[in-house]
Amino acid sequence: LIQERRNICKQIHLPAQSGSSRVLQTMRRGLSSDFITGFCGETEEDHQQSVSLIREVGYNVAFLFAYSMRKKTRAYHRLGDDIPAEVKKLSPGGAYLYIPRRCG
Fold it and tell me: 55 near 98, Cβ under 8 Å?
């Protein structure tokens, strides 16, 4: 799919230490990842697609962060941070911990 469609990034890093739920449970691990919300120009539909991915994959743990500008990025020099902080819904600690289900 990545190869067929130009609007998808060139690579996706999906950390997984095993494809076996039994092995992951024995290792006391699961699928986890980091997600950024509120990137420049992100719409509610874009956000809901990310939520859909999290649910479809069935991550055991996902760390969610509100986007913030970094000087050495393309977004800093070419895009505007147009998503208000109250829309990003950042928790006081700076990240949400989303746990949709447990292993096994």
Answer: no
pLDDT one-digit tens code per residue, 48-101? 888 888 888 887 777 888 888 889 888 889 998 998 887 776 544 444 444 444
Global pTM reads: 0.64
Euclidean distance between the first and final Cα of the chain, in Å? 29
66 contacts 38 by C-beta, under 8 angstroms: yes
What residue type is 17 in one-letter code? Answer: Q
Q: Where are the alpha helices (DSSP H) in the chain?
A: 21-27, 44-57, 74-78, 85-88
If one counts every other C-beta atom within 10 angstroms of the C-beta of residue 90, the result is 18
Residue 30: CB atoms within 10 Å: 20
CB atoms within 10 A of CB 59: 22
Q: What SS3 class is residue 19? A: coil
Task: Give the closest residue to 58 by CA, choosing from 2, 1, 13, 102.
Answer: 102
